């Protein structure tokens, strides 16, 4: 790891102080709409399996999503925070169908990830409108400065988090801000910012594609997982590389992802009750 981390250097003030940046346009609204239609089609075609397909490491099996995590409009902004050598550690959808009771409890991302150091940034890309009505993400500005806080696991079915994990301490919701995004916009958030989201009360699906970026010097504690080099050079070799899928759900890509997800699950779910 470099002696002086570049985190927050260029975007400076805003990201360092608040722990997030939003909104940032990364593609025209029509392009996002086109992608959203494809995603809705996958949900419709694959029924109960769709959530798994579009969840952890969806970019391993869908070429459009592989290309999206490499999109220079996203990576340029991430580079301002992480520096020139960047990996995508994971990517997947947090989708909420219209009038759906699913939600995300108040939490910090780093809690079970086993990544060190905590120089990790999430790009949350909206393919459909993400508003208070559709259950947009809410963050508590500046909360990342508190460091890692305690969490408890609830395993509530409607909670989109793997363990239904929730912060032990109460969150003053008056302090939270809504990250309102139009299709084709993204927000960036720090791995320790306190955030969550409520139900989708709108008539449209809320599709958020969530991409986790790390600098190449980051390490996975507890095992060796996969990561895709999206910019620069990897001089550390802490992760196994990810090939671009040849077609949607190509058998080679499916096998690669199944293995990658099994290894990651064993690390991230260690000690979980289910
Ligand atoms: O999409 C959401 O509502 C929450 C996403 C989230 O928790 C995350 O990106 O870490």
Structural write-up:
The longest helix has 18 residues, at 29-46. The model is unreliable at 1-10 (pLDDT under 50). The strands form four sheets. The protein has a six-stranded antiparallel beta sheet with strand order 1-10-5-12-2-14. Strands 3-11-6-9 form a four-stranded antiparallel beta sheet, with no helix packed on it. Strands 4-13 form a two-stranded antiparallel ribbon. It is globular, with a radius of gyration of 17 Å. It has six helices and 14 strands. By secondary structure, the chain is α+β, with helices and mostly antiparallel strands. It has helices at 13-18, 29-46, 50-54, 63-69, 72-82, 251-268; strands at residues 20-25, 86-96, 104-107, 115-116, 121-126, 137-139, 151-153, 165-167, 177-178, 185-190, 195-197, 206-215, 219-220, 228-231. The protein starts with 12 loop residues before the first helix and ends in a 6-residue tail after the last helix. It has a single domain (13-268), classed as Jelly Rolls, CATH 2.60.120.620. It is 24% helix and 24% strand. Residues 94, 104, 109, 122, 124, 137, 195, 197, 208, 210 line the site of 2-oxoglutaric acid.
Present the secondary structure layout.
Layout: H1 13-18, E1 20-25, H2 29-46, H3 50-54, H4 63-69, H5 72-82, E2 86-96, E3 104-107, E4 115-116, E5 121-126, E6 137-139, E7 151-153, E8 165-167, E9 177-178, E10 185-190, E11 195-197, E12 206-215, E13 219-220, E14 228-231, H6 251-268
Antiparallel strand pairs: 1-10, 2-12, 2-14, 3-11, 4-13, 5-10, 5-12, 6-9, 6-11, 7-8
The structure holds 2-oxoglutaric acid.
The site of 2-oxoglutaric acid has 10 residues, from strand 5, strand 11 and strand 12.
